[in-house]
Amino acid sequence: MPDNSPSVKVSAVRDTYGAEVRFCKPTQEAREAMSAAVVAELRAKHGEERAEEIHPNQDVRVVNGQGSVAMELLEQQPDLDALVVSIGGGGLIGGVATYAKSVNSKIKIIGAEPECAKSAFMSKKAGHLVTNPPNAVIDTIADSVKSSLGPTTYPLVRDLVDDVFTASEQEIEDATKFMMERAKQVVEPGCGLAVAVATSGQLYQRYPDLRKVGVVLCGGNVDLENLPWCRKRKADATAQPPGKATKV
């Protein structure tokens, strides 16, 4: 895991599920290098057949499994005009788009990315795979979507995703907070990203006929002690001179 992963995510994997967690630098290259090193170590210790690397977004089995999200959603609401899905490595939207387009070729599949990590947006614009800068530390509150598209997911995004929109950090934060306050849904900023795009004027300016829009909600990376607005409050309190109270 990246060494800046949300503490709730680390705790769930290590303390609840009993896994060994090894930390690496928060770049895609560092994660891939550590994963390969762990697989090699386990194979050397236990045998070649005892360790397999399963990529979180480029393994076809993972992408296929994530397509079940669209299956369940469209079984409950079959007349949607569009689905908005956040994009990191593209596994989720790849699976969703594959299933949704197979049952309704007219449904719009809309991707959502942070402005500071927009591999899919740039790839759609360029007409070929464009990744985030190598060895770059992606600074976004949307922790779950820092990855780039890869060789498995780029063709799916190219062929099946109709459009990709980006959102600023403030828009992601506002949408995440809106979902918690108004919809009473505990969602992670990676989900707030999709909500930001689904509620944006730019989406409906480009696609004015959209009426029923589904959004994939997720909350696995919510660190309640480190939400963006909590961080700001702590920073403001720290910045106050001694004896001065922070106005809330």
TrEMBL record:
Transmembrane segments annotated in the record for this chain: none
GO-annotated biological processes: D-serine biosynthetic process
Taxonomic path: Eukaryota, Sar, Alveolata, Dinophyceae, Suessiales
Cofactors: pyridoxal 5'-phosphate
Gene3D superfamilies noted in UniProt: 3.40.50.1100
Membership in a protein family: Belongs to the serine/threonine dehydratase family.
GO molecular function terms noted in the UniProt entry: ATP binding; L-serine ammonia-lyase activity; magnesium ion binding; pyridoxal phosphate binding; serine racemase activity; threonine racemase activity
Residue span, Tryptophan synthase beta chain-like PALP domain: 1-219
Protein name as it appears in the record: Tryptophan synthase beta chain-like PALP domain-containing protein
InterPro entries per record: TrpB-like_PALP, TrpB-like_PALP_sf
Organism in which the protein naturally occurs: Effrenium voratum
